Records
---
Amino acid sequence: MRNLLIAYLLIVVAFSSYQCTSDVKETAEVPFLWENANIYFLLTDRFNNGDAENDLNFDRTSETKETRKFMGGDIKGIIQKLEDNYFTDLGITAIWLSPIAEQVHGFVDEGQGDTYAYHGYWAKDWTAMEPNFGTEEDFLRLVETAHAKGIRILLDIVINQTGPVTDKDPVWPDNWVRTEPRCTYQDYRSAVTCTLVENLPDLKTESDEEVDVPQVLKDKWEKEGRLEKELTELDEFFERTGYPRAPRYYMIKWITDYIRKYGIDGFRVDTVKHVEETVWGELIAEAKKVYEQWKKENPNKYIDDREFYILGELYGYNIQSKLYYHYSDTSINYFKYGYDNMINFSFKGDVYKPYKQLFTEYSSYLQDSLDGKWATNYLCSHDDSWSYDKERKDAFNAGTRLLLTPGTSQIYYGDETARILEVEGEEGDANLRSFMNWDELTANIERNGVTINEVLTHYQKLGQFRKAHPAVGAGAHTMISGEPYVFKREYRSENYHDAVVIGLDLPKGEKELGVANVFKNGTVVKDAYSGTTATVSEGKVNISTEYDIVLLEK
């Protein structure tokens, strides 16, 4: 009898514990997780013009096609949209900005038309701000404005190359850069120790030879009245770190100065495969160290205690590769050298998979195979000719899949407004880089049977739900029913628990969803998509809305 009583008590305790853990706990504050971040990527020159007075600099007046010149977007324009809560309404938790260093002054013929460095990837001087984008004061204000909105800033950085040689921009000395051979990608060496394309000098990041500052930079700094300042800062850096004056260490100093000056939250690193992995380890270690020092000196300016974050663009990396990138002659775990997250180039192909397969596979990779590291999903970008749905015929479905797939999500400017990625008369990457379609949004034009404002509203609802629930991107995925597709996401840490139930391709009007013990019977739940509430009964929710999607939260 005594043994039966003990067994009964154990069952009661176990059942009570299960009931407790299966219910969603109330918390005062939703934690930010990079794993669940909703990142907005924009080209500064293409987003919003906040100051027409900085539109022309360095006599960049040669005739080019419309999409190959500077078009006026600037840092002040981004600030305007921050202050208007454009990003907040989208549920954005981090903004990835294209590089802000001063660009080459001349233009080049890329074979598809003369082109200026509007995109930010052709640096002339890493120690100066590109005046077409704004001033140092503008950028500091942008970071502080974003932080006040709870939005982090990821700055795009380039270390593998200078800008191209033009009639206004001479090549750097040959102990700094190589101008051949071109990369052929046959093996590791032919992807790293080479120039990415013709006329794009490759920095000798592998070199340990001590070099002086290129004379072209010294002359520029002297003309601008800051030669002594820049040289003194370099002396202090090399004395503090003990690094030799090899090219990569100058670059590490100049790039980490963005952290010292502005308190940005992370880097999006360009062209990972074109630099030796050990160099990335050196840069990232210094960046994280500088960030911790900046936080000590600015205790009231940072958002939280997280480390400086590193998102990498390792071209061709797929989540299916897990921790490794495979060359023909070697495989490298770049995560080991400090990367927290890699852009996942396979998502734009995987997005065609059925929900069950897509969500289950991605949850498995992220929860079990990446050893605490993460991947960022995207549909479109500034240089991806295989971007998904260039004509924006599938904008609703694209948004659903991007924002609800496990992993970090990256919106490319205009995904949420169905900005067309095919420009009449253009070739190549310029197609992907038209100016943000604010005019179409204002006019609320219809595209493929859906108005642009309807697309934007869809992205806003999904983005805000994702921001409110770490479980969406960072949680484990479990299917509840296959047809219609209903699933739960659950995230649990030592001091936080979050779970949601989501239904897709549901009937419009009356619908029933199982909640799989995520919510207890009698719990009032809300569909965040429609705003409708319902009460859980017998492990199910019956709800009536005009939509085919339900986002259930407590």
Note: The mean pLDDT is 94.
---
Amino acid sequence: MRRILLSAFLLLAVVTSRAQWAPAGERIKTQWSAELNTSNVLPEYPRPIMERKDWKNLNGLWNYVVIDKGKAIPQKFDGQILVPFAIESSLSGVGKRVDENHELVYSRNFELPSAWKGKKVLLHFGAVDWKADVWVNEVKVGSHTGGYTPFTFDVTAALNKGENKLVVKVWDPTDKGYQPHGKQVSNPEGIWYTPVTGIWQTVWLEPVAEKYIRNLRITPDIDNYFLTVKAELNIASISDLVEVGIYDGDKLVSTGRSINGEAVEIPMPEDAKLWSPESPFLYSLKVSLKNGGKLIDRVESYAAMRKYSTGRDANGIVRLELNNKPLFQFGPLDQGWWPDGLYTAPTDEALRYDIQKTKDFGFNMIRKHIKVEPARWYTYCDKLGIIVWQDMPSGDRNPEWQSRNYFNGTERKRSEASEACYRKEWKEIMDCLYSYPCIGTWVPFNEAWGQFKTPEIVEWTKQYDPTRLVNPASGGNHYACGDILDLHHYPEPKMFLYDAQRATVLGEFGGIGLVLKDHLWEPNRNWGYVQFNSSKEATDEYVKYADMLYRLIDKGFSAAVYTQTTDVEVEVNGLMTYDRKVIKLDEKRVNEANTRICNVFNK
């Protein structure tokens, strides 16, 4: 009887929480919106590149209030918001704008599992846009700026034995500030989208020992048959021993150990399995921290043996290479926006869906466009075999745009604070994504958006991570630095510049528009570079462009990016509708055209 009563109570709690929440607004939504359970929102472990078994998810319904900037946090709240969906989104259940003169305050209570007694407790945020201040039981535990990277606070000293209160205050000036904000603007139109304020990735707790592994920095070397694993600890001492085991399934492949905070260099067999889009093989890793023979901490991870580089082909053209072989990298411009969740996919299945469809279309690469995704997105790229070009989200003002020529003018000077903000956030993005095998190219600037000190930024990026290629400014003001010259041309492919010393790529083209009634963000206002009236017409145009691109490969193109994966707000030039309910072009014909291009160097 007691078990029946408990089950009934839990069912009532779920029904009650659903009754208190509903999606805001009447705009289109994805099929996954209906699957949301407010008591179990994005329940998957949020950091699979470094996983522990024990954790607690804090997603769900929180209290919220919008206050004037700088005012005290009130006792009374406006209502409930579904975390981790931004307040402007439908799935937040609120659908409000928060401008630069206001702040958004969240609050919720939580209890710790009894098994965590005696453990240190970490509070993790996947991402919060933009400035976050955090209190636990009215004790301030930390602050963070940056809308695209995870951050963590040790909250152990602030915790109570029973119930605990968590408060988060967020300020986000969107395009009224100099900080990176990507496509978000106060007045959305055309290629500019709705602001995203506040928590937009999973919030979670994790118990650890007094000394623990804080981060893993994993570097493969296929030329010398090594995998290097640097375990960064919260507290380092000379008595620490780090052990790494590398597995192929259940089979132990190799091991390595280090002390004194040194990286572990693990020898790999000469016939080690290499990662590629055709065969995205991942080795499993078990990383242990020991002290005095005692196991202190253990995390599970994964790694791939792969190499990104450039090299000249038989005709002297500089090509992008994967594992020392030329590979034409071709993929869509992927904005990562959702009609119901904005920056946040409604479910983990939805997050994976866009990547799987990219593979189904025959692409081998994604250009992640001026946004950073949750950790699980990159893990899916690792598992499915998609190379990622990672953009830095743009911010601040633009210099004069002279994209069709090598730039010989004067760049706009950022303020000292703006420059420091860019450098801090770019470094944090590179740090949090470093160990993902899929990341092949860093893109510090898109076009001329916020572009400054380009040669200096590119040189720092290249030195900080010499294992990846650097695309200085995709379609932007061009400098003779980095590994790539990146052209943008709409709608058809065209090569109007060529660099004999670097790889020449077409970083954006296409934008074929098709309006589909009942799948539009705004029925009476939509936009595309070119527009057609049927799927066949749009597909015919795509195939025509693909054939043009194929013929330009011999002329010197080494990669290309098609705009774009999905419609986004009033843009209707996606391969899929914004709600992902319709694939707009003929998938089979697109796959055939794309496969021919991706395999061009295999003929």
Note: Confidence is low (pLDDT under 50) at residues 1-18.
---
Amino acid sequence: MDSITVEFQRFGDAPGVLRRSDRYIRTVGTSAPADEVHFGLDQAVLIRGMKTLDYDRFRGPGDVDAIYKVATKFLSDIKPLLEDFLSTASLPKHSSGPYQMEVVTRALELAQLPFEVLATPEIVVTRRIRQPWPPPPVVHSSTPKVLFAWAAPKQRITSQKGMDVPHERHRELLDNLLSDWGGFVGGAAVEIDHVTRAKLAAALSDTNQSFTHVHLLAHGIGPSISALDRMTPIDLSEEPEPSTFLALETEDGIIDRCRPGTLAGMFQPEVPRPASFAIATCHSGEVASIESGGTLAHVLHAVGVPVVLASQLALTQDGSDELITTFLAKVINGDDPREALGACRDALCANAEKTYYDHVALVGYIHIDDGLEQRLPQRKFEVALARLKAASEYAKKRVEKVLPQLGDSQKGLSAELHAEADEIANRFASVRERLMKLEPDPTLSKAQREELHGLQASSLKREAEAAWNLSQVLSGDDAEIWQERSRDALRDAAKAYAKAATRSRDHHWTWVQWLVLEAVVRGSLEGREDDWIISKAASQDAVIRQPTDYASAKERRGLLEQSIWARGSLMELCLLSPMVGRGEALAQAKGHLDELAKACADLEFEYSPITATLNQLERYEKWWGADPKLRLPSKLVNQAKELHSHLQALQGTS
């Protein structure tokens, strides 16, 4: 995404009031000369204008069309002032896609300005303030873990009247979004209900949780009446009262006004920040000039959270939904957060009859680190692989659930269970659909395109396995239907692995998987001896490859892991050796398993190569060798069973 940065500097304290006389030093991009500018609007007029956009005005009594005209006129009047202030005449006129207009300033009076008025489907408006250096660590993972915290306090301890929030709907939206990873039940999301300061601080500082994203649902609320009471002594050294507090709860369930600074202070310096933090709170991005020490969004961004979403105005409930269904869905999928923000604004615009001016109110404080765009394609692959693993695990659990429900072995598959089974297939199809959308991208490297095809093939193989497992708990026609679905997916997987393998001779994994599935679906590897030799050479190269003297610890670990996985490939090639006329190689296969187990003994893996290899060997006996219509030689199946027992014994002693 093309980007232009417009930065404003001024002398003085951070809090300030907007005045026509104030001068700012403005820089546009990296090469334009700095110039001196001012904003031609007074504070009082700006406050009145922003209030015309608040959605409560459109829901009350009065002529709604007339009220809309007032809001529309304010936006049309302030737009040229913003364009002149940001020097938009110097921005790019042509771009291959949407481009980012990044506004950088620490001057709080400028944070009040509705820069988002200038956002279009082609222009993504973001904000940024300079963050601490070195930057704190950030949680980046292809497997999401979302913290969902919400508060709905009572206004007084003697009153049951509460400040309700749509927590049930947001929980459902998050559960659906994270269903590939098991939702709340599977640990992909953690809910803290009636959240207090202590609970929120504990969750944000818990390094064992490492949340990738936070979704905070609560009301924004002004200062307490007692703080403004005329009998309250004035402390000249105290912090100024912010205009908007976060309405958390006390242990008694009443309102606890949490300052922005208190929220930011919940992050300890050494604790990794979530990749994004969405504050579904009214006025969480609003600044009230002199009275404020910073907005809720402002301070979170200042302590190193790279992406913070908030609202300058009262936020509609429909608008708050889009923070989940559009923004969070996209960033979890590996999309650029700037594009996710733009898509969220577009969705709010499209639903303006319900969300009113939420598209103007939504602010995004976004810090893009160097190399993000280069990493995005790889991240999408990693997310797709995580989805595949999650879909496989889901399929396994659903099959386990189906088994006791069948009861009588002669009972057919009910409509409800048919729907369950179809959902399994749909999850794999959804992953492949996402992968196919990546294929036309001309920026993909050769290695990335090879990996893309490998993931597509892996999806088909996993779907075939899920269909076979389901067929094993059925009988009669139902069992045969799902067995045939498994065979069809297996044939497609063999073709997909062939496509992936022939793109490069360097990746042993795709070559070996192709040969294995060729043997399974054809019952023969006649004419494939040269391909077997290529696979073996690629696997041996991966085993013996050594790091350079200047390689980092991460690179050295990567090469070591690759050598371990290559041992599994060599083992399987030994198993296939007789099918290409190379004779028995069972002893060599056991030797490779010995080396694999030895190398794994002192290493920790997210997914153990030993477990993966055991699962693969088990497929020969319980799937491919058990299918009466597949023609895998029985001797090969028995040898796979022997290797499985051998590796199990090694696992027990490692």
Note: The longest strand covers residues 3-9.
---
Amino acid sequence: MFRKLYLVLSLFVAASMLLAACGGGAATPAPEQPAATEAPTAAPATEAPAEPAATLVMWVDATKAPVFKQVADAFLAQYNVKVDIQITDFGQIRDKFQTAAPTGNGPDIIIVPHDQAGVLVANGLVAPLDLGDKKSAFLQPTLDAFTIDGKLYGMPYAVENVALFYNKDLVTDLPKTWEDLMAAGKKLQDDGKATYCLGFGSPDYHLFSLYTSFGGYIFGKDAQGNYNPQDVGLDSEGFIKAVQFLDENVKNGCLSSTIDGNTALKLFTDGKEPFFISGPWDLEAIKTAKVPYGMSTFPSNGAPFSGVQGFMLNAKSQNLLLAQSFLTEYIATDDVMAQLQTGGNRPSAYKPVFDKISDPDLLAFGQAGANSQPMPAIPAMGAVWANWGTAITLVFQGKQAPDAALQDAAKKIRDVIANPLTGMVNVPGSYQNQAGCGDGDAGNWKPDCAATAMKKSDDGKSYASGPFKLKAGDYEAKVALDGTWTTNYGVDGKAGGDNIKFSLKADGEVSFSYDPETHVLTVTIK
């Protein structure tokens, strides 16, 4: 069953030993075993544990880490290959990967939702996957989610969507419409049995089923059924009606004006909230609280978002063949996929496991997502999330009317789509060919190079990039915005000013920081 994986490991170890023998080597060969000797009479002989033949690095978020660490331990024991599970915040995996991968510092494998695949593929950061004869073992919709331009870029392992949780002690009749839901919640609130009518984690993803019930949409579709980034629906009539409905229920106290998923979860588990929209990630907390919960589909035939979790491979990985074999020959098996389903509370994307689901909660999630809409995986989706969430938050806080907030958000999204690099702050210069932007002169002075794009600080007051390892020499650079030369700053932050010069007397590292108020670039050399 694992013949291919054994072959890959054998080739990997052989190549590592050859490289070491030739004096090349970053790879470390497996140590030679000493010749058998007779054990001394004073004490029994013990063998030192073998060094791993290779190491794969995988980035996962904290909720998935425990089950993947178990899988990694089993893989190490069976194949003597270490899988280094590095915990990375779920919302930052893609962004951190986009910064690290071009420089060769990224992980071999990442686990991300399918809607993040589009931008990673567009930037050439992930490699196509060949599942071979295992392909037929996966649910076709989950494969479709990771297929871009006819190529498969991810191996799916789980499907997920939100469901409507309800407290059985408070709710006896499930609402057929959103108006019914709010009315039932309002009565409980007026009777002193509920703090709010409905809780949820975020105003965008979690409430998508409500927006669709009113006719709202994110992107329209073309004649082939593909999402059309030129048709943005955030300011459509249906979307505006949905947000007006939410606004009314904030103003009458049925919904909290403060959107806080943790608070909403606690209210539900404390029995002070009749309805709660969430997904598998909150299931254990709800079970632990022993709240008498049920799970339902959404009112008014609302369609939630569906997502597919999957593995993607770093296109620049030095262990690409080994990483793919690890996925297809070890992860894509009945036992491991069943373990991932149990540990993740998400229905498996793997047919042999999915077909045997009997857990009532997993079945309920499946029913709630029966008419779900896959999250758009096109790069343009990256422009949607922040603007969408901000618009709803402004409405909830009473700072903008629904139509104005959504129109502003939709305009910002359209502007970004017109120029996908809108918002990028970069430091193009004569050093970029050493920072992963390309070879020779062609790799320099590129304002759109993802490898040298600066990251915004948490307080939003500055940007930074690096450190980049550079050879001794003289260099020049300047700041460019939005991936073009249209807006650029040089010496002393002057618009269109002279190039900023810096020199390294010896090989070293260079970092950059940029003040968006003064437009001054600071160069730090180590």
Note: The CA atoms of residues 343 and 365 lie 16 Å apart.
